[in-house]
């Protein structure tokens, strides 16, 4: 398979232009078989961003939105679906539970087959419920069963705070010592990401004491994609573009359908066929569906439906194929312009801490700068670029294959050069 760098070189030769020319980006966009998906999303104009400086950029242009790893763009159908439910509530009242295109009693269940396709699971192994951290707690209450000898939880350094805090509180709930019970794996000295062989080695070495392995699918800070199959066959977690406080998913393999029971139960874990008998005799659904607590807020189901419908216009295979090229193109341009130059130590440079191997990263590059990052970040915002800064010194840039274009990447690189100049960094 042709690498992103090889693709850029080939296209530039065909077009007889520089590999860094905007013409390369335009050509790649014309050849992109997923380019139509961009039209399914609302992309803010630069003038609509409160951080932009209209004396520097054209406010009528679309912003360069590269923050999908933090907050995905809004699908166009989101407002339509929410308005439909508000209208149904206004006109039908309580009858909305059983009427309409998405009856409230089982609205989220209509989406689980679509979600299952994204995560590569069976529909009965996936449930859409609660927020992410609530789901983590519900699952850990059932799957984290510490004993005097096997009580540790393995997680990565700089795990996302919600994951870290959930683990801490679960350990305290069992009245165990947090420092002794949290087994945190770090990168090797001088490295930015964690080697798979180090994770596997630690599991083999500490296995008798480990009760639970909990790693994110994509490490949020570095963008590293963990080899979950090599690390554990017991399960995996995935992060997908979502909105703030969006409805989260949970996954439990079918082999646990009857052996693992929820520690906390609610009405929505009851079999739908007998749920409304109201006899207070639990007829628990097997597997992950038994972990439901209550019916999901319909106004959260609506944006999830709008998003999943777009995902299901394509496949994860095709999205991944575009993502590899899109992120590789970004990497190519950053290395071309901002690789450290020993002959000019004052020239600003960028170090990519995300793995260079495309198979070991998601659709994100985490960038470290040789100059103060906050000033650069603020100058990017003024130029209509939406990305994400994380303390102490990382800029997370995520070109999402659903809606980002190669032209977006090229515009980002141009804006970055201007931002570095404006922030006082020597060019």
UniProtKB/TrEMBL annotation:
Q: Does the keyword Acetylation apply?
A: yes
- Which cofactors go with this protein? pyridoxal 5'-phosphate
- Which top-level group of life is the source organism from? Eukaryota
Name the pathway it acts in: Amino-acid degradation; L-kynurenine degradation; L-alanine and anthranilate from L-kynurenine: step 1/1; Cofactor biosynthesis; NAD(+) biosynthesis; quinolinate from L-kynurenine: step 2/3
Predominant location: cytoplasm
The function of this protein is: Catalyzes the cleavage of L-kynurenine (L-Kyn) and L-3-hydroxykynurenine (L-3OHKyn) into anthranilic acid (AA) and 3-hydroxyanthranilic acid (3-OHAA), respectively.
What protein does this entry describe?
A: Kynureninase
Q: Which organism is it from?
A: Labeo rohita (Indian major carp)
List the lineage, top down: Eukaryota, Metazoa, Chordata, Craniata, Vertebrata
